[in-house]
Amino acid sequence: MAAEPENKETEAPAGKGGRLSKDTLNLIIAACAVLISAASFVATYLQSDAAYRQVKAETWPYLQLSSSNYDMGSDSKVISLNLENAGVGPAAVKSFTLYYDKQPVDTVWHLLLACCTDEGTDRMTFVQAYIDGSPEAPIITSGASGQIMPSGNGAGLFIMPRDASNAALWERLDKARHKLEGRACYCSLLEECYMTDFKSDPVEVKMCPANPHKNYNG
Among residues 158, 190, 212, which one has the least CA distance to residue 57? Predict the structure, then answer.
């Protein structure tokens, strides 16, 4: 009779038969650790970004340029050009240019010569004549560049009340103010800077460039 083959138990290969090998288990643990770390990083980033956005919103400045020909407080005719910060944070005004009929003007006298006097009028003669005329309503002026403008505050770039001595000049300026435009660059407390032409929304820039024109000095 042929000899019966010995009945030997066959061992299952490592990692099979419902059991995980040690290397596989370590790989799964490592992958889980990586996923947990990644999730923690994303959560921290989102939290940090949300906090930054909140601080940015709380320090955001917004400059506006407006003109008027009437003073509600004094109930009188007053032409004024005002730069105001309507945002929620202070604005560091790096540069401000005032334009009349697309041309930059550096002072209110430059503006009045351009808009409201006869052609060829000498600047110094005009200024001296106005001062010597001692009008009851002098022109009050202010610059803007270099100012830290708190929220809700502003600068009166020029204020010109109307009286008998300047009536003709006042009327010309009242018509000319509709041709006034401005351009400014300003920054927040976070050193985030914005360029604006006061017609469209401000554009965020890395830093305020050098002013290609003269700043308005009042």
Answer: 190
